[in-house]
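TICKET: design request
STATUS: open
ATTACHED STRUCTURE:
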C-alpha cells in the first residue's frame, strides 16, 4: 500500500515500512511553495512540515529521489575476461645478449571479491600472454602454480574515474634459445605491479586498427617491472606497456 503527501516542493512516498523523500516534479508545486513562503516569515510552518514528514517515514529509509553519482561496485562473484596487449615490451635476458623487443597478446580472467564501500578486490583466475621471437621461439607469460602477490584493488576515485592497482606473480617460459632446446622457465621473485585509470570497469574493448593505432582499453603503467630468475639465469623487462580491455566474445 502506498500513500503520497505533497507540499513545499517535496513529495513523501511511503510503502510498507520504508519511505522516501524526493523533490516534487512539476513547476506548479514549486510555484505554490514560492507563493506561500513569504507568509512563513519565522520558518515555523516549514519546520513543522519537515518534522511531520520525518515522523511519517519513521521506521523507513529516507533517500534522495534524484540519484547522485553512482558508486555501486561490481557484484561480488562477477567474472570478466579481458584482452591483454603488450606491444613494445623490451627484454634483456641471460639466454641471449642484447635487448629484445616483443609484442605480447593474450587474456586475463578476473573475479570480483569483497572489498569496501567504494572498492573491491580483483582475483586473477587465469592469465596468459604470448610473443614470438626468432631466437626464442614462443615466449609465454602465465601465473605460477603458487602466487605470492596480493589481490588487485579496484577503487572509485570519482563517479567517472576508477583506478586499479594490479599485482601479479608471473612465470615466463622460453621455448628455446637459438639452437638450444628448452623450455627455460623463470619466475618473478617480486610481484609485477601496475596501475591504470579508467572511466568505467571493465574497461572498454581494446581495438587495434589497420594502421597500427588503437582505441579503447586501459593502459597500465608499471610501478614494478617484471624481473624473472632461475638459479643463475635472469630476465628483466625495461618496458612493459600493457593495455587491457573487455573481451566481447
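STATUS: resolved
RESOLUTION: sequence designed for all positions
ATTACHED SEQUENCE:
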Amino acid at each position: 500500500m502506498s500513500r503520497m503527501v505533497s507540499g513545499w516542493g517535496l513529495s513523501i512516498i511511503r510503502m510498507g515500512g520504508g519511505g522516501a523523500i524526493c523533490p516534487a516534479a512539476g513547476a506548479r508545486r514549486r510555484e505554490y511553495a514560492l507563493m506561500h513562503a513569504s507568509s512563513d516569515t519565522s520558518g515555523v510552518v516549514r519546520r513543522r512540515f519537515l518534522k511531520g514528514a520525518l515522523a511519517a517515514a519513521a521506521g523507513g529509509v529516507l533517500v534522495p529521489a534524484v540519484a547522485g553519482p553512482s558508486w555501486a561496485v561490481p557484484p561480488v562473484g562477477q567474472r570478466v575476461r579481458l584482452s591483454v596487449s603488450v606491444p613494445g615490451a623490451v627484454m634483456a635476458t641471460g639466454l641471449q645478449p642484447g635487448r629484445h623487443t616483443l609484442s605480447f597478446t593474450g587474456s586475463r580472467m578476473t573475479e570480483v571479491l569483497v572489498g569496501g564501500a567504494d572498492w573491491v578486490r580483483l582475483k586473477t583466475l587465469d592469465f596468459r600472454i604470448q610473443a614470438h621471437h626468432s631466437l626464442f621461439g614462443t615466449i609465454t607469460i602465465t601465473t605460477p602454480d603458487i602466487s605470492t602477490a596480493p589481490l588487485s584493488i579496484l577503487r572509485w576515485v570519482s563517479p567517472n574515474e576508477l583506478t586499479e592497482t594490479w599485482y601479479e606473480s608471473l612465470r615466463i617460459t622460453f621455448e628455446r634459445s637459438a639452437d638450444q632446446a628448452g623450455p627455460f622457465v623463470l619466475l618473478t621473485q617480486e610481484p609485477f605491479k601496475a596501475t591504470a585509470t579508467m572511466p568505467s570497469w571493465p574497461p572498454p574493448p581494446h581495438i587495434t586498427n589497420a594502421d597500427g593505432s588503437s582505441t579503447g582499453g586501459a593502459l597500465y603503467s608499471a610501478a614494478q617491472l617484471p624481473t624473472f630468475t632461475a638459479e643463475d639465469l635472469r630476465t628483466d623487462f625495461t618496458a612493459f606497456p600493457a593495455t587491457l580491455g573487455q573481451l566481447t566474445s
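CLOSING REMARK: The radius of gyration is 28 Å. Confidence is low (pLDDT under 50) at residues 1-70.
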